[in-house]
Amino acid sequence: MVRARAGTTGRSRSRRRARTRLGRFLAATTAAALTVTALVVSATTARAADAELAVNGGFEAGLGNWTCSANTGTTVTAPVRTGAAALKGTPAGSDNARCSQTVNVQPDSLYTLSGWVQGGYVYLGATGTGTTDVSTWTPAAASWQKLSTTFRTGPATTSVTIYTHGWYGTPAYHADDISLFGPSGGPVTIPTAPTGLTAGSPGSTYVPLAWIPVSGATGYHVYRGTQRVASSASASAYLTGLTPSTVYDFEVTAVNNAGESPRSAAVRVTTTSGGGGDGGLPPHALVGYLHTSFANGSGYTRMADVPDSWDVINLAFGEPTSVTSGDIRFGLCPVTECPNVESVADFKTAIKAKQAAGKKVLISIGGQNGQVQLASTGARDAFVTSVSRIIDEYGLDGLDIDFEGHSLSLNTGDTDFRSPTTPVIVNLISAVKTLKARYGAKFVLTMAPETFFVQLGYQFYGSGPWGGQDPRAGSYLPVIHALRDDLTLLHVQHYNSGPIMGLDNQYHTMGNADFHISMADMLLTGFPVAGNTTRMFPPLRPEQLAIGMPASTQAGNGYTPPGEVNKTLDCLTKRVNCGSYQTHGTWPALRGLMSWSINWDRFNQFEFSRNFDAYRWS
Question: Could you say which residues form the signal peptide (predicted)?
Answer without folding.
Answer: 1-48
